[in-house]
Amino acid sequence: MDRRGLLQMIAAGAAAGLTGERQALAQEKTQAKMERATRGMPSPKIKDVIVIATQPAGARLTVVKIVTDQDGLYGYGCATFTQRAEAVGVAVEKYLRPFLIGKPTNRIEDTWQACYDSSYWKNGPVLNNAISGVDEALWDIKGRQAGMPVYELWGGKCREAVLTFANTGGDNPKDVVEGVRQAMAHGYKHVRVGAGFGRRPRGPGASEPPAGPKGLHEGPVFDRGANLRLMLQIFEACRKDIGFEVELMHDMHERYSPREAIQFVKDCEQFKLYFLEDPLSPEDNDWYRQMRSQCSTPIAMGELFNSPHEWTPLIVERLIDYIRCHVSQVGGVTPARKIALLAEQFGVKTAWHGPNDTSPVGHTAQLHLDLASSNFGIQEGGIITGVLAEMFRGCATFKDSYLWANDAPGWGIEVDEKLAAKYPFGANEQGERGRLNGGWGELRLSDGTIIKQ
Ligand code: MG
């Protein structure tokens, strides 16, 4: 309190008939109240940083737990980079843990900047995921301290629940139309459809991939032209048999040349898609200007982005409609909120990447972002069931394509760490992925040329 304020308070006390000792006591109490309000309670300190590595289902999941020096106060964050999961664990345990122990938990922005800068070289997926685990755990702690869900700390809910989309796929239009109908029967109004020669089927309802064309090598062949022709047939069948009341999307997964991608995005204009996802790889970002100038199909992009150098130009030049970053990949909810706020200024909506290689903690952090972001568009994934729901208690409930938060403090998630320990990395992997320690292997054209996955 400044001198003027103190004099006013003393004058008010005198006017109320307070004198001497009573007046001094009142003044002391008021001062203490103001200090509590402005300074808050003393910050807890980071006592330990623990990596929880588990694979109860398909993907290797990494969660960071930060333990504080206050009894029972801790938090969880998602650091899942399933294709290089062991490397993230090392980054947390060998580098961030010694860097963070003893630091206060309340300075989240400052801690994020310090972690980001402490490696000197930065903006890579391993280190960004490691920082995300710390960042989200600190937000969880702050929410628990406040007795509020994290979305309340970001300004509160902009909506009651979070819209999601379904996935379906197949190797012929008839199967895909049936998959879309099934999704609609479960209450979905948005369905992402896929097809594929020489690639994994996508999501529930997807059939096994067909044998596909033969190549000059032993592995599966990805036929770009055949895939694009089949997708156009699929969209045509969906619009002819179902109509336009269902919103359709498709993930191109960065597998095409810029010329092929631009032609396909133009060809899709007639089907009025909700969005086409990742038509180009981040290396080809400059082609989005040409794509945008030639057609109006909405574009969603960004699950491979690591750095502001990648997403900023696409947002501020209004070259995309949905930003689809993988939240842990960009460093956690602190940078993701900045991306969402930047995107809001340029009419771009959020559609965070959320397949099963996001931990339930990560899904929940995204749910809180979705609830608190005015420019939220749609959310992928987030339905947690089976052993995952047993291991991560408090996940969102799902009804009629919407996810509902549990409104408990922090993320509202408790992790059964003993159960997680029963499913070490590799426990659910067979074949090539097990041999590659969770890695994805390779994808090639018929002549053997390697392409992006
Ligand atoms: Mg994708």
3D architecture notes:
There is one protein chain. The chain is an alpha/beta fold and 453 residues long. It has a domain at 162-410: Enolase-like C-terminal domain (TIM Barrel, Alpha-Beta Barrel), CATH 3.20.20.120. 41% of the residues lie in helices and 14% in strands. It has 16 helices and 15 strands. The chain has helices at 3-15, 20-39, 85-100, 108-118, 125-146, 150-153, 173-185, 224-241, 258-267, 288-294, 308-316, 333-345, 360-372, 386-391, 417-421, 431-435, and strands at 46-54, 61-68, 74-78, 162-169, 190-194, 247-251, 275-277, 299-301, 322-323, 349-350, 379-380, 392-393, 397-399, 402-404, 414-415. The strands form three sheets. Strands 4, 5, 6, 7, 8, 9, 10, 11, 13 and 14 form a ten-stranded mixed β-sheet that branches. Strands 1-2-3 form a three-stranded antiparallel β-sheet. Helix 7 packs across helix 8 and helix 11 runs parallel beside helix 12 (333-345). The longest helix is centred in the first third of the chain and has 22 residues, at 125-146. The protein is globular and about 90 Å long. Bound molecules: magnesium ion. Magnesium ion (MG) binds next to loops.
Properties at a glance:
16 helices; TIM Barrel; three-stranded antiparallel β-sheet; 453 residues; disordered N terminus; globular; alpha/beta; ten-stranded mixed β-sheet; binds magnesium ion
